[in-house]
Amino acid sequence: MAELLVLQHLSLEGPGLIAACAAERGHTIRQVDLSSGAALPPARVPGQILVVMGGPMGVGDLGNPAYPWLAAELELLRQRLDQKAPVLGICLGAQLLAAAAGGGAEPLLVGDPPRPLREVGWGAVTFTAPATSEPVLAGLASSELVLHWHGDRIVLPPEAVLLASSLHCREQAFRIGQHAWGLQFHVEMEAAGIGAWLAEDAAYVRGALGPDGVERIRDGAARWGEAVATSGRRLIHNLLAQLEAALG
């Protein structure tokens, strides 16, 4: 049994299905909301899996006085990577993980001339490696439907292994060594969480998808939510198995 320490950047973006799957595996879960002034954990904690969640800020906000904890969080991730301690990053967490390893994040641009894109809503990711070589993909189809909610793309560090891409964003999932994984998409989301996000972030969604954007995501949740949660649980359990192995 391990402790799953979840770093949140606002209370709305919690671990959801990740916490549920971890509890099923016998782990304890502790949530730390950095936006409320909670302290970061020590650099080394034996028996601990670090999970870093998403948020509206980004790697470009390093040094922004509104997020005084962001630089210290990045340093913590560097130290955990150096120790080969198990880490999972989701959305912003994945971007910070990439930055800690020598990569980064930048605005997602598409088209010619390039223009900014918010990748928001239901869309497929295609896995770029076989499950025979990447155990985290075991039991998944070659493409799976997921929920996207971002406007940046990850710049992978040299040692990262790309695991998944989408039509508009190449860097959807990656691995660093055998101890750290990052997901740009939101595998953790449950129906209640999606509803809360739509209520809080409606303007962002409509800016990405148009005036009916909120309704489109809500309708998609009713249509596909159960199937997406099933494949999401499979991926989460696969990830937790690999993170457990990295505990040594």
Structure description:
This protein has helices spanning 17-24, 70-82, 92-100, 191-200, 202-209, 213-246, and strands at residues 3-8, 28-33, 48-52, 87-90, 104-107, 109-110, 115-116, 119-127, 143-150, 152-155, 160-165, 173-176, 180-183. The mean pLDDT is 97. Helix 4 packs across helix 6 (213-246). Strands 2-1-3-4-13-12-11-8-9 form a nine-stranded mixed β-sheet, with helices on both faces. A two-stranded antiparallel sheet has the order 5-10. The chain is built from six helices and 13 strands. It is of the alpha/beta class. Helix content is 33%, strand content 26%.
Summary tags:
single chain; 9-stranded mixed β-sheet; alpha/beta
Question: Summary?
Answer:
This protein is an alpha/beta fold and 248 residues long. The chain contains 6 helices and 13 strands. The longest helix has 34 residues.
Strand content: 25-35%
- Main beta sheet, described? 9 strands, mixed
Order of helices and strands: EHEEHEHEEEEEEEEEHHH
The percent of residues in helical segments reads 25-40%
Number of strands: 13
Low-confidence stretches: none
The general outline is globular
If you average the pLDDT, what whole number results? 97
- Could you give the order of strands across the largest sheet? 2-1-3-4-13-12-11-8-9
Q: What is the CA-based Rg, rounded?
A: 17 Å
Going by helix content, strand content and strand pairing, the class is: alpha/beta
Supply the number of helical segments: 6
First-last Cα distance: 12 Å
